[in-house]
Amino acid sequence: xxLVKESVAARALKTKLSVExxxxxxxxxxKSMPVFENINLEVADGEFVCLLGPSGCGKTTLLNVxxxxxxxxSGSIQVxxxxxxxxxPRRIYVFQERGVFPWLTVEGNIGFGLFKLPPTExxxxxxxxxxxxxxxxxxxxxxxxxxxxxxxxxxVARALAVNPDMLFLDEPFGALDSITRLxxxxxLLRIWEAERKTIIFVTHDIDEAVQLADRVxxxxxxxxxxxxxxxxxxxxxxxxxxxxxxxxxDGIFQQIGLAHKI
Amino acid sequence: xxxxxxxxPLLFIAxxxxxxxxxxxxxxxxxxxxxxxxxxxxxxxxxxxxxLKYVVASxxxxxxxFLLAAVLAIPLGLTIGWYxxxxxxxxxxxxxxxxxxxLAWIPIAILxxxxxxxxxxxxIFIGSFFPLLLTAINAAESVPAVxxxxxxxxxxxxxxxxxxxxxxxxxxQLIVGLRITLGVAWLVVVxxxxxxxxxxxxxxxxxxxxAGNRYDLVVAGMVIIGVIGLLLDIGMRSLERAKSFRWGYxxx
Lengths: 262, 252
Prior knowledge:
The structure holds 2 protein chains of 2 kinds.
Chain A: H1 2-12, E1 15-28, E2 31-44, E3 48-52, H2 59-67, E4 74-79, E5 82-83, E6 91-95, H3 106-110, H4 119-132, H5 148-161, E7 166-170, H6 178-195, E8 198-203, H7 206-212, E9 215-219, E10 226-231, H8 243-256
Parallel strand pairs in A: 3-8, 3-9, 6-7, 7-8
Antiparallel strand pairs in A: 1-2, 1-4, 4-5, 9-10
Helix pairs in contact in A: 4-5, 7-8
Chain B: H1 2-26, H2 35-47, H3 50-82, H4 84-97, H5 106-113, H6 117-141, H7 145-153, H8 158-195, H9 201-210, H10 215-239, H11 247-250
Helix pairs in contact in B: 2-10, 3-4, 3-6, 3-8, 3-9, 4-6, 5-6, 6-8, 7-8, 8-9, 8-10, 9-10
């Protein structure tokens, strides 16, 4: 227990990602629409951060900016002290299951980013990640024959196979049924604990955020701002019926303006 | 059961042929030769060595016109669709040229290339070029952004992006476009051969009428055109069944 705390503290010393005064404004029909404003955030190396907010609060756009797909209107994003100017294979974005290439088999998808490796090493890596996400026997299958959860695992495996230091996950389990979703959360935590990637995870599901993250960044409705950052100081595996868990979760519910009663 | 379902269209055709034969025999004005007469016409063509010669002549023109159009229109269309600015520049001229029937080009084809194969090939080229160009533009434009972003994320160079994302993503749509356009090309060749050349199935039809009202040969030519058109379509359709393309057709 003490050890865990120390390692978290040690990691927290090194900043992986820093977001400085970032704002984004879209122009549509001559009108400017602010998406989010003045976002400041520091993420430590190996940290698991959830961006939580109602739909339309700009959290996906913020994730796209962090990944380098979009340039912010003002402010800057830095990773390891370098300004982000575009997407980079060291930082992989996982697009729900929509990003799986339908023209490639499971193998082909997982090995997609490994084109620079010699063939034998490539095959070994593919086999390793096929096993990690439990898709043995499906190597030669095309995505259309897979379930949503399996496609999602293909995409996560494809991202991990290039051994990135960061993962950007955009509501990765949003389209899955609730049972598969729980299984996938467990898988993701297992992978994160084994490989210690820095993970930025976008979700609108409060429970999901509190179950997974070291810190939950709560965003307001559009134009999005950071309302609060909640530290989830519960070690994994988390007891989701413990008093402290419920306290943290209800705190976020209140922050978002939802009394936790229906 | 399956066999019976498969035989049903053949049975239907047989019934139609019988009705056609009876109707043809009962009328005295010779408005249409009967199927038996048409079979005689086809046999006549085979005996004179014309059937093979005309079929080959027509297929030759379609092949060249169609391939030439595909080789030029597909890369051009993909480039235009891939770069938004190019599309804005090219779109007006494409929209003006596109609705002009390839048949309207016949006088110009004859002026430029004379009466002969080249004119017919040119007309088929014109008839195939615009549909293929539009198909390629649309296909490139409709590549989902997530595929392109994923490709960029994994550090693909622009060349690799074209080869590993654009190309596989557009193939299913291109195959449909090629199949439909080959059908168009087959329509155009008949018309082109009626005017611009002295051989081929289109020529057979006008020639049979002009040189002695051989309507059995006219209908024989029509039947052969239909059968070859069907075979071309079946051939193109078999491409759609390739495993790595099938994802593009299963949605609808």
